[in-house]
Structures are given as C-alpha cells and as structure tokens.
Specification:
single chain; alpha+beta; four-stranded antiparallel β-sheet
Length: 605
C-alpha cells in the first residue's frame, strides 16, 4: 500500500475501491459478458471479452449507468438512458466491439422501464410505465420497424420472460389491484392471445404472490419456472403453460428436512437441472437440483450472502459473494475468483452478530456490529429501504464507516422485510411505518438494556424507506433518538403520492388499502409531516433533485415546516435521482452525515 493510500481513511478507501457486479453473459456467445463497475469513480457498464480477457467501458455519463443487457448473439449491448437519475428514459444500443450508440427502438418515447426481452430470432419486447397511461409492452417483430402493443393495463406490470423460441411472452401483472402479489399471464405473440393465467389473489382472502423466473432454455419447451407463496414462503414451481401441469418442488436438506426461509431458482443450461438459492436469516447458499432424479447437491459457498449467481454452459456456477467482514468478489464453484475489480482490495470490516428480540408481532432479527473497546457505544440504527427488502450479512461500506468512527451499528429486519416468510412481509397493512417502528423500538430497548448502546447517543438513520422510517420515528418516538439522518425519504406522504411514479402509487394503494382520497386518515397517521412538531432531535436530510420515488417537493414541504418551527436541521440537495452512482458524491454525503452526528453528539471529529 502506498503512503498516499495509507493516508486516506479506511472508510473512504472502501468507497473508492473498485467494485464489479456479477457478469451477465450472452446466451449464444457465453464468452461475451457485461458487468457494472465503479472503477472510474462512477458506476458504468463494461463489456468483457472473456476469450481475450479484454475489458471495455461501454457507457460514460456524468451520473452513471447500471441497466444494460446483451443480445442473445452477443453482438449488441442495450443500455437504458435516463436523465440525471430521473428513471425516465429510452433504450440505446452499441456494438459489443464498440462503436456509436443508436436509439434501439425508435418510436417509443421516454418512460419508466417495465422490462426488456430480446429474442434469438430478433424479436424485441420493451415494457414502459407512464403515470397517465399505465403499463404498455411494445413488440417489434424480426425484420420489421413497426411497433405493436401486445399488452396494456392501467395497473403496474412488466415483462417476465420470452420463451426460447420467441413464441410466448410471460407478463407479471397486478391487474387485480394488489401490488404486493403479482399474477402471471402468458401471451402467444403470433396473435396476442392469452394462453395461460396464474392468479392467486382475485377472490381470495389470503392473497399469494407469483413471480416469473424464466422459460426453459430449450427449443419448443413450454415450461415456465415460477416462484409461488402457496405455503407461506417463496418456493419454485414448474408450470407447463401448454398443458397447465404444475409441479411444485418441495426441496429438503441433507437431513431430509424442508428448508426454512425462501427458495428461488433459475434454469441451468440444457433445462435438465436448476440452480437453487436458499435465503434464510440474512444469509444465503446455493444448490443444484436435477429434475429427473430429484437429487439436490449443495454447492460450496462461504458463510455470508450470495448477491447473485449464474450457471455457465461448462457446468460451473459463478456467484457474487461477500460477508459483513469481507468485501465482495465474483467467485466460481471451480474454486477461484472469476472477476475482481482492478486496484487495491478495500479494507475489511467487523463481522455481524445475530440478535433476536421479542417484538409485538413476533421475534425480530437484528444484525449487530460492535467497534473495538467496551460499551456502551454511540449506536447507529441503520434502517433498510424497500420496505420489501432485508439487511443481510454482506459487505457494506456505510456501516463499516460508522464502526471506524467508534459507533456500534444495528440493522433491523422489521415486519415487512423479506426472507422470513410471507406472513412477516405481508404484516404491513394500513398502519404503515408505525408497524416497522414498533419492531425497531423493541430492538432499541434491547440495545440499551444489554449495555450495547448509550441511550444518550442513539442515531436513527436510513435511506429511501429507511429515510421515511427515520423521519417518522423522530416524530412518533421523540424520546428514543438523539438525532436522525434521513436520505431520500418520504417526508410528506400526501404530497409524495401526488408526485411519485405510478408503480409506487400502486404499491401505496395496496399498503394503505386505498388512495389518499379513499383513506386520508391512514396516510396522515403514517406521514412524518404529521408529527414534525414533536421532533426533539436534530435531523439531517439529503435529497436528489430528480428523484421520482421520493420526490423533492414533499421533502421541501417538510423542511419548510422545520424552518417554521425552528427545529434544528440541515438539508443537502444534489443533482441526481434516488441516490447517486458517483463515488465521490457518496463519500461527500456520508462525510456530511458523520460530521453532523459527531457535532451534535459532542464527539471529536
């Protein structure tokens, strides 16, 4: 390590260290791959010729690019072009070997993305979502420049998958009005007719979700791999859309026990086996499942989190793995690192401890990291977004930075989080925000009573839904928190609903049981601005000017009330969307947050 590098704080080194995503490869040219990396300081798309081991940056935009896909033949790279992170964009493409970008599908105006499917025969399907128009799936047939509409509905939906022979399209949709539980419709592209439907919401008191995992990668194969919640968690099933036959896969471990937690799967090349991912209690592991014999084989992965995996044609599996203590790398079941970003490996961090706390809705799982020394410590409660997401035992530069500054870090997988069964995720109903904060409050009480946390130095922090819970928690639990750090939050729920993208309006109607016009009292009860007068703790807010998910106007409304009431606060606005893809911008934001916390907690900087 050079003297120059050693002079940079470890927490900044972690942010600046280059990262890579799991490479995605072309179906008919598996040695052509795409990945995303921040090696230039901004997250951009890269092409990787694995035969020559050459790497080329594909995109170069001030605010970064992350959405891209290879054509099946590996000849073209498609990438999504929005404006400064506003998520309204169009698909462009360029040759894999390099060359000028071109508009990939002329005639489709800028919109929110709702999926992309590229057929081996040249079929193109583009999903778009618009606030006034809802979801539309556009079809361009091989050899034609004309566009057809094969699907349209006011409720949100998107492309699930295109069959191997490009004859069938699976659509994930929420026409029934429940954005938490999708249904699946299969369309025949020759005439647009619906040939199959799975809907486990309509007419049910116990709605269950479905998700398309992909058609079998074999010519003329009409089997669709589906995730279902029929037994209270996510599990895989094979659905033959031609015959209607359903084969639920009840998988068991080496001791013959059914797996707890959620199971997902993808087809392995040849369609005779599946790659299965088991996710349970904030960690994950991989298996291979032979469909004919029913044999399940564990694949060797370290303890931690697999953030993505792909089965290669040569029989190996590549996966992106990390733990809270060890940075991520793309590894292979063959036993080597497949792809690591250039430059120094970022410094490691502290392993997590698992803590279970009794909450009002059942046992709550928290991930705890302690700095060196004896407690009680100043403690950051880092609240995840989503809300249908979860914190995991994976490497994250943000929590590691707080540990470097002497803070303990607690992350809570509150009700609404994924990975603990459908009932835990679906517990969010009507009392939105307040339910999650009950669980966070229970873990907060444990942290203080156990001697981990200093009750006079408790920071509530989060981004997106976590930022929303931060502002709501400061107002509804004013005695519990010493200060708050809210990034891209929902702050005024009524104004947020008016301005946010249609997909999130649909989610809100599901969560609250209606629109603000139908159930205004529920939105007011769950809106941070309702409780702004109760705030006692200083609050720091950061917001993207082009954010379509947590729009700037509703944050400005909240800030205006803080100013009217003389509440201690700071606001940082930046020119991007729902977060930044620029490394130095991320460092700047965290530096401001850490500085705000150290000042207001009376700690040396």
């Amino acid at each position: 390590m050079t003297d120059e590098t050693s002079a940079v704080p470890a927490w900044e080194q972690r942010f600046r260290a280059a990262r890579v995503s799991l490479p995605d490869w072309a179906e008919e040219a598996p040695d052509r791959a795409l990945y995303v990396s921040n090696s230039t300081g901004t997250y951009e798309v890269y092409a990787w010729d694995r035969t020559a081991d050459t790497h080329r940056r594909v995109t170069d935009r001030p605010n970064g690019t992350t959405d891209a896909e290879l054509s099946p033949d590996g000849e073209w790279i498609w990438w999504f072009d929005d404006t400064d992170g506003d998520e309204l964009g169009v698909w462009r493409r360029q040759p894999f070997a390099g060359g000028p970008d071109e508009l990939a599908v002329p005639g489709i105006e800028a919109a929110y993305g709702a999926g992309l499917a590229l057929g081996r025969d040249g079929t193109v399907l583009v999903g778009t979502s618009e606030d006034d128009e809802g979801t539309t799936i556009h079809l361009r047939r091989p050899g034609s420049a004309d566009l057809e509409t094969v699907y349209h509905h006011q409720e949100y939906g998107g492309i699930g998958d295109l069959s191997h022979d490009s004859s069938l399209l699976a659509v994930d949709h929420t026409e029934h009005g429940d954005a938490m539980h999708s249904a699946i419709r299969v369309l025949r592209l020759s005439d647009g007719a619906a040939v199959a439907e799975l809907d486990e919401v309509t007419g049910r008191q116990d709605p269950r979700g479905l998700a398309c995992l992909g058609f079998a990668p074999a010519e003329g194969d009409t089997r669709l791999l589906v995730a279902h919640q029929r037994r209270g968690r996510w599990e895989p099933m094979i659905w033959d859309v031609a015959t209607g036959a359903e084969t639920e896969l009840v998988l068991r471990d080496e001791q013959g026990r059914e797996f707890p937690g959620d199971l997902s799967a993808q087809w392995r090349p040849g369609a005779a086996a599946l790659l299965v991912e088991h996710e349970y209690e904030a960690r994950s592991e991989l298996f291979s499942y032979e469909l004919t014999s029913g044999e399940l084989t564990r694949l060797t992965t370290p303890r931690g989190t697999v953030s993505g995996a792909t089965a290669r044609p040569d029989g190996t599996v590549e996966f992106l793995w990390s733990s809270a203590a060890e940075p991520a790398a793309v590894r292979s079941t063959a036993g080597h690192v497949v792809l690591r970003a250039p430059g120094p490996v970022p410094p490691g961090s502290v392993a997590v401890e698992d803590v279970w706390v009794e909450g009002p809705g059942g046992r709550v799982h928290a991930l705890v990291q302690r700095p060196d020394g004896a407690g009680p410590f100043p403690t950051v409660f880092e609240v995840h977004g989503g809300p249908t997401h979860h914190d995991s035992d994976s490497f994250a530069a943000g929590p590691a930075a707080w540990l470097d500054h002497g803070f303990a870090v607690v992350r809570v997988n509150y009700r609404g989080s994924t990975g603990y069964g459908q009932a835990w995720t679906d517990a969010l109903q009507e009392r939105i925000g307040l339910i999650e904060l009950e669980d966070i409050g229970a873990v907060r009480d444990w942290a203080v009573s156990s001697g981990l946390a200093d009750p006079a130095q408790l920071v509530l922090s989060g981004g997106s839904w976590g930022g929303y819970l931060t502002l709501l928690g400061l107002g509804t639990q004013p005695e519990s928190w010493s200060l708050g750090l809210a990034a891209v939050p929902v702050a005024d729920y009524l104004a947020s609903y008016e301005d946010e993208m249609e997909a999130l309006k649909s989610l809100d109607r599901t969560l609250f049981g209606g629109s603000p016009e139908e159930v205004p009292e529920r939105y007011r009860a769950s809106s941070p601005i309702t409780y702004v007068e109760r705030l006692k703790a200083p609050v720091y807010i950061s917001a993207g000017l082009n954010d379509p998910r947590c729009p700037i106007r509703q944050i400005d409304n909240y800030v205006a009330r803080l100013e009217e009431l003389g509440k201690e606060h700071e606001v940082y606005r930046y020119d991007a969307g729902h977060g930044s893809l620029v490394v130095e911008e991320r460092i700047k934001q965290l530096r401001l947050e850490i500085g705000f916390a150290l000042r207001h907690l009376g700690r040396a900087q």
